[in-house]
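Two entries, shown back to back:
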Amino acid sequence: MQHLDLKTFIPEKVDSAVILLHGFGADGDDMAWLAPCFASAFPTTAFYCPTAPEPVPDYPMGRQWFSLTEELQRLASANLSDFDDMCFSMMTKAKPAVRLIKDLMDEIESTHHIGQDKIVLAGFSQGGQLALQTGMSLAPAVAGIISFSGVIGLLEKDEIKSKPPILMTHGTDDATLPFAAHKATVAVLKSIGADVTDIVLKGEGHTISDEAIAAATAFLQKHLQR
């Protein structure tokens, strides 16, 4: 089993956990700033920020959960005529990373003696896709999934093991993953009966804004503290 480099924030008493998955070209530190944003409201929640093991070509300081260069170019063009094919390609390449996150969850559950119904998967951009893909492939269901500026296509029926509550946030002015891709993702999720909360960030780009953090805090209060 491959162990991921981790940035962690672990209180003395733990009854739940949030895994924060970074985007393409970043690392665990890039998501670690979110933990203090949530910690005061969730004093018994552990936060795990793993770093993807695969370096980005020509940018060794950056990490990727899977190769994304071709798909990023196509998505940035805002030509979504082959959106399903692009998403299928990304989801296929993400499968080894899904396994890594499942292994990390097993470690968290064993360490803190909690079930996966007390774990939220959250991610930004590529990490958002990974959170969605991993979360819906698990049974029993995780407490919830948060995707900041992430997209996903239609999962195969045999890959959908649960439909946990999902929070999606996306900026209308996102030049990396166009807002149209977000709308297509929400439509896909709703078509399979997923419980989706859709937060549209007007005028925002490819980012996690204050509004997105507020929405995520409310989502965690509803689904992690039940």
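entry 2 starts here
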Amino acid sequence: MECTSCGARQIGEPMAKPDVLLPKLGGSFAAVSCVLLLAFTFLAVWLFGNDMKVGRVLLVWALGDGTKFTQELLQINPKLPYYKIFSYDAYRQMFFLGFIWIPLALLGVWLGRRALQRAKTAPEEYGGFRLARVSTVASSLLLVMFSAGVVLQIPDALERSRLKQAAATRAAMYALHAEALEKYHREYGSYPQELSDVSRVNAEAVPNTDYWENNFTYQPTGVIASRGSAISFSNYKLISAGPDGKFDTEDDISMEDGIILQDGQTKIEKVPASTKSFKQ
């Protein structure tokens, strides 16, 4: 027999099909590999992340404090035996790496379900039914665990973000006080009547907006002298409207004479009309 397209000729009888066909296990092994990858990477990050604190604590617990190695660990950090926030570290790692682990867990579920379906419909061709079922369940549990870890950490992440934004705003207010307002006060014996007046003592740009890019509200207070058209102020208030961009609300951040005021002390007081007439 000769092939009409390429001219190849048959030189022997075709091989007979084997009596026993081994089922394919690639899909099941792929699903299990995904589960193992997730489990081992999570444990590795949990144990060796955060300066290996969890791993060092477990070593001290397992080996005791009588070995030279654990004694060196305790010299570096004597508080290791009292470290008990393992769940916080786990949730923290889930939150920061959830964008990797959750898709991998979804992939594991998909691979396991596909291998399970193939083993059901064609058992003579595809094997690993139990392996696929176990990997599907394990991937589903990991998916739920990682998703819950991300969801539970969202409020804490938002709170950390809020504190970071407020800290950046306070830093800008301190910089404005030290680099402009205090310089003006030392130069002229008075705080400026307008925030723009600080350009007289500091030509460089100083922060006049908060983290949310809203302008600070500045108001001089404590009129101590008035001579002709000049007016002097002994105090001032600097106020940020906070994340909502509205004054006289609970999230306002207020500074008075270089000191950040506590909550509830941020109400804006308008400059009296008598002092407005002395603007330069």
